[in-house]
Amino acid sequence: MKDNNNYNVLIVGNKGREYALAQRLQQDERVNALYFCLGNGGTQDLGENLECEHYEHIVELALKKQIHLAIISEEEPLILGLTERLEKAGILVFGASKEAAKLEASKSYMKAFVKECGIKSASYFETNDLKEALSYIQNASFPLVIKALNKNTSIVHHQEEALKILEDAFKQSNEPVIIEPFLEGFELSVTALIANDDFILLPFCQNYKRLLEGDNGVNTGGMGAIAPANFFSNELEEKIKNHIFKPTLEKFQADNTPFKGVLLAEIVIIEEKGVLEPYLLDFSVRFKDIECQTILPLLESSLLDLCLATAKGELHSLELVFSKEFVMSVALVSRNYPTSSSPKQTLYIDPVDEKKGHLILGEVEQDNGVFESSGGRVIFAIGRGKSLLEARNHAYEIAQKVHFEGMFYRKDIGFKVLDLKEYS
């Protein structure tokens, strides 16, 4: 599909995934210029960070910079309809429509959507009344999953813990709370390119979301990941395609909901009567940091072609080639992540052997060549290898090249599939 046109590309977002996307796009000689709204301290070295006051302003800037392709990887602009505004201005967009974005924006909407599609998922109780919620947990079996304040997901093991989360949630918002049983199994993140009624699965990924070693502590956006997570049969992959993605796209088509971008399904594999079955945990309608940064190094084809084919609705013309290597990512986070903000810290980064992997700059700022942390997940160490163990060794070797006060990272990423005798 490769063409000889030159492209000005706009990436909307300011986290690690935007840096990862830009880092890869920069390697394509057809990319004439890269712009970011808002970008971060790392992306300013890969292109131009633009000051954006509001989403209408992004459209104005896109026209001024003669943008040919926009990639939207932040949730809020998708929810507010930036995809439609840019398309109306004649710009190709790799991003979900406003209607499709509701699948991620509202847990309540997502659960109802999934139920209507007949997709296997946890049973759930939904209420916006504290008394009803308390009555439900008194008779429920633990552990439970509580999805409150629309985006916060907590795994609770006893009533006192659940009570505190529910009381805090109803103090802060009148939004519905969803309570469901915790599903024990092997979790996978499955990312698909979506072009309306067509889709292509990317390599499966396993995201380690809990803060602490051994999958303990609070849930996070991801403390690390491995790819490809190919520890499954072709039969299971077909079930994921046919029982999760196809019903979802069929409903979008029936509802006349356009979608040209990424759909990420968080899935848990459960054994039922000796048969492995995929259950849907959650949907995201965009690249997520950990998954994006872990999958992209495996892509040997052009990322620009991937985005263009998706935005044009021409996935049938796309031929993707992936490396046979393994990739592991490790999030280097600030001291108080994810419960509260941490003071800014100066980053010190030693040279990295690029044959072994690389660094992805996430929540960082830059001033006169000096990097400072500006959020929770500051930098990601990405290791590659011919085996998962080699990728792990390289990722942790690269992690040790970064230094800042309060830096923390899990030392057991990959433990579910590697026989780790001890954390090192």
- What is the terminal-to-terminal distance? 45 Å
Q: What's the shape?
A: globular
What is the count of β-strands?
Answer: 24
Give the helix/strand class.
alpha+beta
- Quote the average pLDDT: 94
User: Helical amount among residues, as a percent range?
Assistant: 25-40%
Estimated share of beta-strand residues: 25-35%
Number of helices: 12
Q: How would you name the oligomeric state of the polypeptide chains in this document?
A: single chain
Low-confidence stretches: none
Characterize the main sheet. 9 strands, mixed
Integer-rounded radius of gyration: 21 Å
How would you explain this protein's 3D organization?
- The chain has 424 residues and is α+β, with helices and mostly antiparallel strands.
- Helix content is 29%, strand content 30%.
- It is built from 12 helices and 24 strands.
- The chain has helices spanning 16-25, 55-64, 75-79, 82-88, 98-105, 107-117, 130-138, 159-172, 234-254, 289-295, 303-312, 388-399, and strands at 7-13, 31-38, 48-49, 69-72, 92-96, 125-127, 144-148, 152-156, 177-181, 186-195, 198-201, 206-207, 210-212, 216-219, 224-227, 259-272, 275-284, 326-333, 348-349, 357-361, 364-367, 370-373, 377-385, 402-403.
- Strands 1, 2, 3, 4, 5, 10, 11, 16 and 17 form a 9-stranded mixed sheet that branches. A 5-stranded antiparallel sheet has the order 12-15-18-23-20.
- Strand 1 (7-13), helix 1 (16-25) and strand 2 form a beta-alpha-beta unit.
- Helix 1 (16-25) packs parallel to helix 10.
